[in-house]
Amino acid sequence: METRAPYVLIGAFVLAVAAAVFGFVYWLSNVGGLGERTPYRVQFENSVSGMLVGAAVLFNGIRVGEVTSLDLDPEHPSRIVATVAVATGTPVRADTKAGIDFQGISGVAVVTLNGGDPKAPRLVSTDGKPPVIAADPMAWQTMTQAARTVLQRLDNILAENQTAFKTAIANISTFAEALGRNSARIDGIVVGLERMTGGGAAAAAAAVYDLTAPREFPPLGKAPPKAQLGVGDPTAVLMLDSQRIVVRPDAPKDASFADAKWSDNVPKLVQSKLIQAIENSNYFTAVGRQSDGLTNDFQLAIDVRTFQISTRPSVRAEVELSAKIVGDNGRIVASRVFRNTVPTEVTDAAAAAAALDRAFGQAAAELVAWAAQAI
Questions:
Q1: How many angstroms separate the CA atoms of 316 and 104, rounded?
Q2: Coil/strand/helix, residue 370
Q3: Topology of domain 208-374, per CATH?
Q4: Are 374 and 232 in contact (CB under 8 A)?
Q5: Which of helix, strand or coil describes residue 341?
C-alpha cells in the first residue's frame, strides 16, 4: 500500500494538469480571443505610425478582433494594407468605415470600425480574398502630425502679420507711457466712472414731494347724488407726463431742482389725489379708478393742461384741469375747466412744490363740488 500511494498521487496530479490544459485551450478558443474569426483588409492611404501586429480592432468602441498583419501595397507605395481578424458575428456592412484611434497614456494605436446602415448588405468577398474596408482618408494623421500642422499654420499667421503685431506692441507701449504721464489723473477718472456706473459713494437721496388731497369743499346747493363715480386715467402732454417739477420759461438756477421730483408721474398723482378728495367729500356713494373694471354710473375724465411754475411776467404756480362728466350711455353730462394760480417766490424746489400743492388743492376742491352739483 505504501508503494502504490505515490503512484496514485502522481496519476491524480497528471489528470488535473491535463484537465487544466484542456480547459485553458477551450477558454482560449471560445472566450480568450481565438474563436472563429472573419478576415478583412483595411486600406490606409498614408502612414499608420504606432500600429503594430496584434493591435486591437474596435467596433463602435467594443473589441472584436486584432490586427494579424501589416503590408505595403506594391502598386501604391503610400498605401498600407492591414489584415484584421474580426469575430464572425460582428455586423460589418458594405458602408462600414475604418479609422485609427489612440488609447491610453502611451498612445497605443488601434483600428476602429464605425457602424453602417442597418439596411446595407453585409461585406463579403468577391474575389476569394478578404473583403476590403475603406479607411477614413484622415485616419493616418497622428496627434504629433496634427500638432505640427497647427504650429505650422500659427507660424504662417505670425509671419504674415508681423508688421501688424509690431504696430500693436508699439501702440501698447505708447498707451502705457501716456498712462504714466497722467497717473495723477487716473484717480479722478476712476471716480467719474464709478459715478457713471452707479458705484462709489452713495449719492444723496433725491427730494420727493407729494400733493395733498383737500378735505374742505364749497357747500352744495342740493343733496349729494346717490351715484358711483369712476375716475379715468388723466391725459397730459409729454412735458407734464413725468415726475419732474416743471419751471418755465426760465430754467431754475437753484441746485435743489436737479434731483427734485414728484412721488409719481403728474397725471397718476392727480388721479390718486382726486379720488382721495372725492372720498373725503362723502358726496358720492362710491368712487374708484375707471381702469379697475367697476360698473360706474358716471365717469370723470380729466386732462391735465397745466401743472407748472411760470416765471413770466411774474412768478406763480399754475394748475389747469379740464374735467368732463360722462354718463353710462357715453354722453357728456357736463364739462368745465378749472384754472388756479398762486403767486409765490420760488427760492428752491420745496417752495415750488408747496405753491403747486396749494394751487392743486383749490382746483381739486372746486372740481369735486362741481361734479356733485352737476350729477
A1: 89
A2: helix
A3: Rossmann fold (3.40.50)
A4: no
A5: strand
Residue ranges, comma separated, of all CATH 3.40.50.10610 domains in the chain are 208-374
Alpha carbon 48 to chain centroid, angstroms: 46
User: 299: pLDDT confidence band, cut at 50, 70 and 90?
Assistant: very high
pLDDT digits (tens, 9 = 90+) for 244-287: 999 988 777 777 787 889 999 999 999 999 999 999 999 999 99
* Residue-level length of the chain: 375
Integer CA distances (angstroms), 280 to 222, 285, 297, 372, in order: 18, 12, 19, 13
Is pLDDT above 70 for 29? no
Query: At which residue does the C-alpha cell 468605415 appear?
Result: 97
Beta strand segments in 148-272, E: 208-209, 228-231, 235-236, 247-248, 261-262
Give exposure, 58-68, as e/b (b: 16+ Cβ within 10 Å).
bbeeeebbbbb
**Which residue in 213, 181, 228 sits closest to 327, CA to CA?**
228
Name which of 315, 367, 322 is nearest 341 in CA terms. 315
pLDDT band per the 50, 70, 90 thresholds, residue 213 = very high
> 328 and 220 in contact (C-beta within 8 Å)?
no
In the structure grid, which three cell numbers stand for residue 369, read together?
A: 363740488
Is the pLDDT reported for residue 100 higher than 70?
yes
- C-alpha atoms less than 13 angstroms from C-alpha of 280 in its C-beta half-sphere: 18
In the numeric block, which cell numbers belong to residue 211?
400733493
Cβ pair 146, 92 in contact under 8 A: no
C-alpha cell at 172: 501698447
Peptide bond into 91 cis (omega under 30): no
**Higher-pLDDT residue of 343, 291:** 343
Beta bridge partners of 59: 62, 113
pLDDT at 32: 47
Q: What angle do CA 146, 149, 152 make, to 5 degrees?
A: 150
Sheet with strand 56-59: strands edge to edge: 97-103, 108-114, 56-59, 62-73, 76-87, 37-44, 132-134
Please check whether residue 139 is in contact with residue 103, taking contact to mean a CB–CB distance below 8 angstroms.
Answer: no
What is the DSSP secondary structure assignment for residue 199, as one 8-state letter? -
Cell matching residue 36 = 472563429
